[in-house]
Amino acid sequence: MNPYVIMILISSLGLGTTLTFASSHWLLAWMGLEINTLAILPLMAQQHHPRAVEATTKYFLTQATAAAMILFASTTNAWIMGQWDINQMSHPITTTLVMTALALKIGLAPMHFWLPEVLQGLELTTGLILSTWQKLAPFALIIQIAPNVNHSLLMTLGLLSTFIGGWGGLNQTQLRKIMAYSSIAHLGWMIIVLQTMPTLTLLALITYIFMTTSTFLMLKLNQTTKITTLSSAWTKTPLAATLLSLTLLSLGGLPPLTGFMPKWLILQELTKQHLPLTATIIAISALLSLYFYLRLCYAMTLTISPSTNNSSAPWRLKNTQSTLLLATSTVLATSLLPLTPTTLAMLL
Amino acid sequence: MTPTHFSFTTAFILGLMGLAFHRTHLLSALLCLEGMMLSLYIALSLWTLQLETTCYSTAPMLLLAFSACEASAGLALLVATARTHGTDHLKNLNLLQC
């Protein structure tokens, strides 16, 4: 694609999210979301491949429906309450409708069916944008309306997301689908703690973005989209394969790595709010996700040289990609846990 | 609930139902989306008229502009899908599921 066109699309992508961040009026927030959707569609369909076009169509249909529902709910709110402000929205029906629409937009559990299929049809860079940058604008709205949303709706969305994210990923061999289910599970963790402590939601979102960026860039470095090609990644870049397995364990939430921090704090907050059953259930559902991360780690690190390996070794070509962002995000994704006290002091 | 409120709510919900349950052609999905946006246009215009505020009178125009952009993107995707998949049947969009 023409670099000028790509520049325009990327800047509109930034503009849409910034507009949603900056707005306190529902119409402007809706416009930001629409600009965002319209800007990413050509990026998704830039390879005229049947799978890319199909993913773009599915993405367009879900996002347009969600945006229309958001505007419908805010118009209804304006008719009933005479109020267009985002954080003043208080009518129970309209807040439920907006929360459902935003859950459809980010792919929370009962509305998640589009996310794995769309992510599977994209190339890795666009998939990275879809699973990090595109979550920010809906989350800005979710955090603003969160105090007025029905509590049991949020709990149901969160619990269902963590479970379906774990269960759905178990049977997948395609890495992008696994990343999509991991995204669903992480979003569930963020939604669970939304009403009791929204800063923890932001913390979980930020750490999720670091870990996902690192994983997607590492997969792009190795040009792998399947487990079978991942198992021969160590012949090309042995250190990167080791770090990728560490990043995956961080996504799973194992203690010395960054991913443990949000899970730890969320479980502590739930215990503090006298919700031990919810805390136990999401802690157990994290094991489901951990299974497929561990399987990826097994394919990457335990199938190296002394043990037998059925896949053929690929050519070792010289790497020409820029790795600055990869290095930064990998360091952030694996070693931020010692910063927990500072983060807590900053956030709380 | 006033009669106008009831009528645009019903129009929007009918559009949404059509989009959600009548999944044969991509074109009919796009038409349902357009119907939803037009019911929202009527809602916004009537709200402006009812309150007689001039500062909100640009809002329905902005909505119409954005929904036109959205419809054109949808039609472009319809053409792209017809070129790659051969038809616009939604049941043919099954390459990515497993």
UniProtKB/TrEMBL annotation, chain A:
Transmembrane intervals: 6-28, 59-81, 93-115, 152-171, 178-196, 202-221, 233-254, 274-294, 324-347
What sort of enzyme, by top EC class, is this?
translocase
Q: Which UniProt keywords apply?
A: Electron transport, Membrane, Mitochondrion, Mitochondrion inner membrane, NAD, Respiratory chain, Translocase, Transmembrane, Transmembrane helix, Transport, Ubiquinone
Q: Per its record, what are the GO molecular function terms?
A: NADH dehydrogenase (ubiquinone) activity
EC numbers listed for it are: 7.1.1.2
Protein location: Mitochondrion inner membrane
Q: How does it sit in the membrane?
A: Multi-pass membrane protein
- Keyword Electron transport listed? The answer is yes
Instruction: List cellular component terms (GO).
Output: mitochondrial inner membrane
Reaction catalysis annotation: a ubiquinone + NADH + 5 H(+)(in) = a ubiquinol + NAD(+) + 4 H(+)(out)
NADH:quinone oxidoreductase/Mrp antiporter transmembrane domain spans which residues? 23-288
The Gene Ontology biological process terms listed for this entry are: mitochondrial electron transport, NADH to ubiquinone
Work out whether the entry's keyword set contains Iron.
Answer: no
Q: Which residues form the NADH dehydrogenase subunit 2 C-terminal domain?
A: 290-343
Q: Name one Pfam family in it.
A: NADH_dehy_S2_C
Spell out the InterPro entries in the cross-references. Complex_I_Subunit_2, NADH_DH_su2_C, NADH_UbQ_OxRdtase_chain2, ND/Mrp_TM
What PANTHER family does its record include?
A: NADH-UBIQUINONE OXIDOREDUCTASE CHAIN 2
* Purpose of the protein: Core subunit of the mitochondrial membrane respiratory chain NADH dehydrogenase (Complex I) which catalyzes electron transfer from NADH through the respiratory chain, using ubiquinone as an electron acceptor. Essential for the catalytic activity and assembly of complex I.
Report the sequence similarity comment from the record.
Answer: Belongs to the complex I subunit 2 family.
Q: What is this protein called?
A: NADH-ubiquinone oxidoreductase chain 2
Provenance organism: Denticeps clupeoides (denticle herring)
Its gene is ND2
TrEMBL record, chain B:
Record's family? Belongs to the complex I subunit 4L family.
The residues that cross the membrane are 6-22, 29-49, 61-82
According to its UniProt entry, the function of this protein is described as: Core subunit of the mitochondrial membrane respiratory chain NADH dehydrogenase (Complex I) which catalyzes electron transfer from NADH through the respiratory chain, using ubiquinone as an electron acceptor. Part of the enzyme membrane arm which is embedded in the lipid bilayer and involved in proton translocation.
E.C. code = 7.1.1.2
What protein does this entry describe?
NADH-ubiquinone oxidoreductase chain 4L
- An example Gene Ontology CC term for this record: NADH dehydrogenase complex
Supply the gene name: ND4L
Instruction: Give the subcellular location.
Output: Mitochondrion inner membrane; Mitochondrion membrane
Organism from which the protein derives:
Denticeps clupeoides
